[in-house]
Amino acid sequence: MQAHKRSPRKRSLPLAMLMLTVTAVLCIGCTSGTIVAIDMGSEFLKIAAPKDTSIEVCLNEQSHRKSDTWIGFRGEERFFGADAKSLSARFPDAMIPAVPRLVGVPHDAAFQQGWLNKMRYTYHTASSGTTRGTVNVTFPASEGVEERQYTADELMGMMLGYAKTQAEREISGPVRDAILVVPRGYTSRQRQAMVDAAAITGLRVLSFIHPTTAAALQLGLQNRGLGDEPQHVLIYDMGSTKTEAAVYRFDPIATPAAAAKGGKKSTNSFGTISLVGSIASDMTLGGRAVDACLAEFIENAYMTTAPTAGKQRVLTGTTPQSRKAVMSLLRAANKAKEMLSANREAPVTVEGIAQDSDFSLRISRATLERECGGIWDRAVRVRDAALKSANVTLAQLSRFEVVGGGLRVPIIIEKLSEGYNKAGSGVVDRTLNSDEAMVVGAGYYGAALSGHFRIKGFRLVERLGFPVWITVALNSSSNTEATGTAEAPSSQQRKLLFPSEARLPTRLRVRVNATVSDFIVTLDETTNSSSSATIVSKSNTLVSGVLGALQQVGYGDVDAADRNITHTVWVDIRASEAAMVYIEKAEIEIHYFVNASRKVRKLVTPPAEEKNASDGDASASPATEKTTPESGEEQPSTAEDAGGDSASDEGEISDEAPDATTTSSSSKPSASDDITEGAKKASKDSTAPKKKPTYVTVTEVHVEARSRVFPLTLTTTFASPAVPMSKNESILSRDLLRRWRRSDELHLQKSAARNDLEAYLIWALSDGFVYNDEALKVVGSQEEMDTTAEKLRELQNWLEDAGTEATVPTEDLQAKLRQAKLIVRTALREAPTVEETKAPKAPSVTTESAETAAEGEAVDEEIEEGDDDGADSGASRDEL
């Protein structure tokens, strides 16, 4: 097995070399904003989209620039963002955050102990119960609705749908494409799961971008370049549940030295941003880790100082009541952390830490710094790992930019600043917006990818970030028997295919030693470059059709034993711009010889006649022959061409069509032109009589060298847990999300009807009607006004009692509103409107709208055909 580096094909918009705008994005024949950037962390969601001539952060329904990454279910209702978070105190098992961290990971002990418990999340997770081995989240029964389970992919699809709705409301147009900001630590399996989750909600993921890369891009855009000399910039991002750091090199288009030699500075770009080394990360370090540390300190203080009767540990509780206590304790710890960021001391009160019991104490900043010292050390180690990978020191940095909500603790900034003294400040740089730098940078990246915008800015050079290994082995379950003399390969040693520092995008063409049997290509990703490192993602691809292709050229046929058939199998593997590694194609290139025959015409020249008697008897000269092809046949090539190699260069990937192609060359025997002296004299004699030339047709046999290329069949399965969704599972999940979307529309319509009725009754029973002097004059008497007011109060009592029930139909609320308006109009001697007299109408959202149907068609296109394993396509997903 040999790997050959391929030169990337020329593309109109190379993703790894994007030229991104700085001050303006010019829209070319498109509606405003058909692509969005989504930065969905464990705690907060930010969205950015092209609007007018720039990238703008989208506002949510509360007009906030970021939303809480929470989702939950109660009865027949679904809650997002701040609504779900506010209910988490009462229903901790029904409202959950951090959905992106559940996607594409196996549900096993490592997941439970390594992340859920460390982050102190209280919701229930379980295995999906299928061969996929992914995470399911269980939501308890409530308000007459039984317990329900949703896969992490479905929950992520719901969150992305929520983000899509926000963006469409902000830009007043449809959103089809998205750029997702994902941590460097996400494997190909997690990235594929994000793509699947987006597809079932109607979004197409154009690409991913790492948070540090997006922040580096935004830094360059914000500063319109970073000078005329190359600079090294360290970007450090600490979020809620992960921390990443990386060094980027900012290169101007032309340095002063290059300009002195005639180099010109481009007017279309400010330079190149290149990732140096790899991105260092800690996937459990962040603001949540500080909250958990402080919560443990408060719990220990409670166990030490509170009365001992009935006292129990809080953070390890498993009952519903204890989970409420855990949520209360973590909220108190988070509030204390925020207060200590600006104050030396903070009061802490944990409500409901025990049954009918609260707990209060005071915490100083010095206590926080002492108790959580291990976290500060971990933060510094991430910084040092990034510097070591880039082979750069703090003194060599031009900038040290820090972003992320987890950096609001002063001690972290102090620790990270040690050794950095650029411009004499002794403190790290904080010129970027900590919350929005990543999503805005991703927005410009997406604007470039969409193809709708004319771009000016930076050239980006990204790297893979994790090593990928390859193993090639025979398919032990293959029923195909090898024939002939070709030697099939045995199991081969596992080898490094892509190092973690490989540039993106990149391709490799792998040559498999001569085989006539099906074989399996195994690709796996590991945590580091060691061959014994932990495997986090593994796929097996069966390559089949080798023998069938060989048999098409006569392999194994005794009548074709002289063909000297040789072949090479190629496997093309690609690491995309989104850091997703997969097999693009496999093909077999066959070379062989054949005996070919064709008819040719030979020209026969008759002997010359005697010129006169004095010449005597001349012996007949032999006939002169010339060979020409039979009419309509091609002239064969020379014999030297028969041995030529028609195969393409090994280092290139063929751009031929997938159909088999054939090329040939042939040998041609030379004709005999033995002309006698007498014939020469006869030809010179102009008086000699001439005969018409005659031809004979003969059959010639020659050897042709041929080459043919056949595509091979690829069938991919996954050997490790967290298997992607099958086609049928994607369809069922898509239908589930559609039903929830229609249910949300019905609930929204009901809420609007309830609010309209409540607002009208408040108006009518106050200065709007009952206590309005002008209205009293029209009514005529206080007694009649009191009677009218009593009717309105009856409607208000109904609204406060039955009207708040979840089961009340929307049309009943609408009918009560019409009744209230009719009561007021009758008292005011006004004729009722047509709207008030017509019969109640059913809710308008009863069938799938045209917009939803169109979106469904788009989703159908996005869900690629795959294995039909998994759920039965005729089955129905959970009813609402």
UniProtKB/TrEMBL annotation:
Entry keyword annotation includes Signal: yes
Keywords of the record: ATP-binding, Chaperone, Nucleotide-binding, Signal, Stress response
Originating species: Bodo saltans
Keyword Signal tagged: yes
Signal peptide per UniProt: 1-27
Pfam family membership, one: HSP70
Comp. bias (Low complexity): 659-673, 846-856
Acidic residues bias locations: 647-658, 857-871
Ranges annotated as biased composition (Polar residues): 621-638
Compositionally biased region (Basic and acidic residues): 677-688
Region (Disordered): 605-694, 831-880
Molecular function as annotated in GO: ATP binding; ATP-dependent protein folding chaperone
Protein name: Heat shock protein 70-like, putative
UniProt xrefs under InterPro entries: ATPase_NBD, Hsp_70_fam
BP terms from Gene Ontology: endoplasmic reticulum unfolded protein response
One term under GO cellular component: endoplasmic reticulum chaperone complex
